Amino acid sequence: MKIAISSQGKEMSSTVDPRFGRARYFIVADTETDAFTVHDNSQNLNAAQGAGIQSATNIANLGVQGVISGNVGPKAHSTLTAAGIDIYIGASGTVQDAVNAFKAGILTKVDKANVSARWM
């Protein structure tokens, strides 16, 4: 399964970014092969508005089946859900920690946003 994790850096040892829409990077990991790719999200880092929607659209275009982040706002949630992407929140630690937690079934799959629009 391909999952996208919000990240503050370009490595599996990087810290999970608690923000989805304004994450610095997304790491797309294949949970079956452990391969990963890094995707820059700097265009949305300081966006005046629409960061969640644009980030979610970009992630959907990468063909992932799931997203892992610390938090997800309502616009990103709606866009991801419309694309059929599962959303898992509450991730912390490193990106590798988040992948391990996902594989272990520890992360919470959500059916609504857990923060308000323009959070942080």
Number of domains: 1
CATH C-level category: Alpha Beta
The H/E string reads EEEHHEHEHE
Number of strands: 6
Q: Number of helical segments?
A: 4
CATH architecture: 2-Layer Sandwich
Describe the global form: globular
CATH superfamily: Dinitrogenase iron-molybdenum cofactor biosynthesis domain
3D architecture notes:
The chain has helices spanning 42-45, 51-61, 74-82, 95-103, and strands at residues 2-7, 25-30, 36-40, 66-68, 86-89, 108-109. It has 120 residues and is α/β, with parallel strands linked by helices. The chain has a six-stranded mixed β-sheet, sandwiched between helices. The chain is globular, with a radius of gyration of 12 Å. The mean pLDDT is 89.
Topology:
Elements (H helix, E strand, L loop, with lengths): L1 E6 L17 E6 L5 E5 L1 H4 L5 H11 L4 E3 L5 H9 L3 E4 L5 H9 L4 E2 L11
Parallel strand pairs: 1-4, 4-5
Antiparallel strand pairs: 1-2, 2-3, 5-6
Helix pairs in contact: 2-3
Could you give a quick summary of the protein structure above?
The protein is α/β, with parallel strands linked by helices. It is 28% helix and 22% strand. The mean pLDDT is 89.
Question: Key features?
Answer:
single chain, 120 residues, alpha/beta, Nucleotidyltransferase, domain 5, 6 strands, 28% helix, globular
